[in-house]
């Protein structure tokens, strides 16, 4: 069931002419549109919607599931202080535990340097960098360098920018991730149930932006199940962003 | 002063100073007993492994006198000085030189010289100082020594003592057939008859001297002092790698030293995660380090040394044209560690602990064995995906008798609890925590906007371990 819930009509930065309308869920014609099947290695950004929101971490960790090679996880001091560290015992979104190589540095400049070094190392499964705030070194040039390196070496790079309003960036995909109130716990109505996240791809190259409500599902192809925002069950077809009121 | 090692029932004396020996302190006695008699005793922990390593190094240093030297047990060095004594002006002069050179390093040596290795080590330990023994008076010198001088096991010494054989002379006077029958079951290195034969030269006792350690160092002498080492690194690295390849080794620890014209020197060290023989990689690692060298007024000599090397076989390139991903990661670790420091690049290790913050132990990725995967212990309960380094106290605005606070303030923002799960009680680890540490009751709390926090209450009211319980925020659930 494709939900037609009304969310926010100002969403969707890509403007399509009516005659040229192509459904993002048109199956094989545009495989890149299905969530988040686009595994082309490049630089992606995840911006938490609110402070202390670990759903961006959860999304990245689930997308890295099943990788045997080590993951380089780089953090600066401020992001450790603000958001803490990844706790692998709690990162049960992946069936096999991730092998993480942690780099913890003081300055965002060193985060970017370490990420660039990692992005050009083909032996890694992925590089994840966390920078808090919007430091001056994290500019368009720095992100472009990362994107080019990642595309050249084939190592996917994720940048988690907490406390960042969304400044200019050359990331090929920019996600804004937030938590939603979890589903009702069938065993205990007073307790939180299955976590739900809201993933908003607000800028993308080579695919259509979209907005999804997702739940983690270890059996799904990409570790996610799309659910309807109204909370009345799964959507039938994976890969269809729910349409907003404008009918796009 | 005594050195103490750990015995079965507490520390025992491992070695003692001359002053302590004069007070009647002997090896193997318990330190507490001696302290009762001599309260002013100064006790230091012994380091037998360090002593052995030091002796190994000293054995190589002793090759200044002759080419064949080897460490002898835990307290001696054997030198095969055959044909080398005339270089130092004769045997007496050689012994005097040895004693003097050791004294210059602050060590007291008891040298002795004899035609066989067994006799020399026995005379050095039990004979008069500076003994030089000829082949003619070998048995005369040997016979008054106690049988322990033959390096027998303490049980064998005791057995021989019960048989009335206290000295080597008494032992050698016994019929050989009787000794052979009695000790036939013993290993050659503990058999008194064989050891006696070795000491008297009846059996061969060759010296198995280890080969000289190969020092892999290349140097570059410059015609004029320069300030920047960068242009010379490629040449140094290429020559060092050629040497390493010739020896079948790869470098694990490198040291670049510049010798400044004011007579001072500066060096930088760098380590690699796996043995490398690639000059380009070494240059790349060094380049990030050379700006930390203070060149002073310039330097005119550079050396690059492989301080620690490991065997590195020739690596065959992948037929498919692929790259070895492990080697790539090892190189990445090298580069990151060289620039950021050893403690900034770490891998996760695990240990058994109930405390969530203690389960993960970060070990530097450069550590040997850090690369091998260790199984992540399964969590007894749901754990948050992110954990704060230090739990942060939350301000309770509206407490409820059961469960987490209905309203609380954390980092200046007020949150209202919508749903919660818990508690999960984690008791302090009494074997590790200080006495008086309070229990923690953890709750998974979902606030109204959907964020899920991991809160805990420290202590229970009336547990006698402090005032009212406080609330802390420890992590975030996905």
Automatic annotation (TrEMBL), chain A:
Record-linked InterPro entries: P-loop_NTPase (IPR027417)
Region (Disordered): 16-39, 226-248
Compositionally biased region (Basic and acidic residues): 239-248
Name of the protein in its database record: Protein ImuA
Gene source species: Oceaniovalibus guishaninsula JLT2003
Ranges of Low complexity composition bias in the record: 23-37
Alphabetized SUPFAM superfamilies for the sequence: P-loop containing nucleoside triphosphate hydrolases (SSF52540)
UniProtKB/TrEMBL annotation, chain B:
InterPro entries reported in the protein's UniProt record: DNA/RNA_pol_sf, SulA_CellDiv_inhibitor, UmuC
UniProt entry keywords in alphabetical sequence: DNA damage
Regions annotated as coiled coil: none
Organism taxonomic ancestry: Bacteria, Pseudomonadati, Pseudomonadota, Alphaproteobacteria, Rhodobacterales
GO BP field: DNA repair
Organism: Oceaniovalibus guishaninsula JLT2003
Domain of life: Bacteria
Domain UmuC residue range list: 9-122
Protein's UniProt name: Protein ImuB
